[in-house]
Amino acid sequence: MLIVPIAVTPYISRVLGEDASGQYSYIYSIVTYFTLFASLGFSRYSQRLVAQHQGNKYKQSIDFYEIFIARLIPVTLTIMVYLIIWNTGIYGQKYNGLVVILSINIYAIAIDITYLFQGNEEFGILVLRNILVKSMGFLCIFIFVKSAADLWKYAFIQSMVVMLSNLSLWLYLPKYIIKIKISELKPLRHLPATFMLFIPTIATSIYTSLDKTLIGLITQNDAENGNYEYAEKLVKMAQTIITSLGTVMIPRNSVLFSRGNFEKIKENIYFAMRFVMLLGLPLSTGLIAISNNLIPWYLGDGYNKAADILKILSPLIVIIGISNVLGVQFLLPSGEDKKYTLALVLGACINLILNLIFINKLGSYGAAIATIIAELLITICMCYFVRNDIKLKKILEISWHYIVASILMFGICFTISTKLEASIFNTFFIILCGIIIYFIILLCLNDEIIRYITKINIKNKY
Q1: Tens of pLDDT along 22-68?
Q2: pLDDT per residue as tens digits for the range 208-223
Q3: Residue 129 contacts by C-beta under 8 Å, 6 or more apart in sequence?
Q4: 231 with 37: CB under 8 angstroms?
Q5: What CA–CA distance (Å, rounded) separates 257 from 275?
Q6: Do 222 and 23 touch, CB atoms closer than 8 A?
Q7: DSSP 8-class letter at 175
Q8: Do residues 196 and 337 make contact, with C-beta atoms less than 8 angstroms apart?
Q9: How many CA atoms lie within 13 A of 24 on its CB side?
Q10: Which of 58, 186, 211, 452 has its CA 20 to 30 A from that of 236?
């Protein structure tokens, strides 16, 4: 998930240019709303349900068939609405081709069974799937996408990667599922619970996709969306490292909650928070430090705003990392769906209001500022909701090493960045300096994780 976007982004940003990139970003943000309606709240609900029935193939089989049937309802309704809206011509002739091609993402929802493997903590299969399918997509982009005229090919390849990823998992299905009598299935019973989780999903989409939609509608400038798209993509690449832990911890904590092992859950949450701070803080401050040196050679000409947008959005790595631990890894597995939903809905409302105000005045900069404020508000709400179970004072106690090390690393790397011209060599030199400085400082502070890693290495050596 990291290597392919890092390798593809500089190529695509150049061959498509900021206008075609902006068109893709704008239409994809609209299609995202339809995929969310098609998914309803099934993804997280299904993962949690399967995790609670780990080791019971009979119950998991019933869950699987019921969920598959129930999810066909929102998928079918969404496709019908999508086609009706498309036939009205509301998107405009310029975007019609993209609208049709990207609809593949909606159809792919119907065959998505990722939750079955996540719930069983079979992440090796998912990793293998991602490597094979994304590598195929990576090669196709370099072979077939050569100019802005090939935008439709890029959209088709990206959509087919999603479709093939979902299809490939069905090969492993016989290992986990047994035959169940149709009379035993009650698929409609899942709809109320998934609808409750659909509300935070919609709320999330408001501050992850609505910004791009509003940039397109308000500014009527594809280049604005192009700059915002790639700056946000860089931040999301870094976020992947942090939020990947959440994917693993949701089923693990769901199992622990079902068994009443609350002490182990708290231990997991504090570990996850330390992980977020250890990597999130240097990633966030590091991106700010290298942005001016990175963007010119990485994205090419025409992306002058992207460096400043990247600086604004970089704190999201830590902010979302914290809310992911408290919300996705604690509130959802514990069944506190309403608190999780409330935080996201509140953040979404604030984000919508701020987007309408700021984008009109500041364009893509305004969207970035609105996103930061909304995500910060969500994280504050999450902290408040878990205050009786997770001690924030303890989180600060385990984080101060990383705060000090990140601030010192940022100061040095930012100074170096201002002295060097923008080039691939200089950027990687600054990154290398940052990594060395950060871990030397942690060694000097006798950090627990660094001490643990060092101890492991010494044992392995001898």
Answers
A1: 888 888 888 888 888 888 778 777 887 888 888 788 888 898 888 88
A2: 677 888 888 888 777 8
A3: 165, 168, 169
A4: no
A5: 21
A6: yes
A7: G
A8: yes
A9: 25
A10: 452
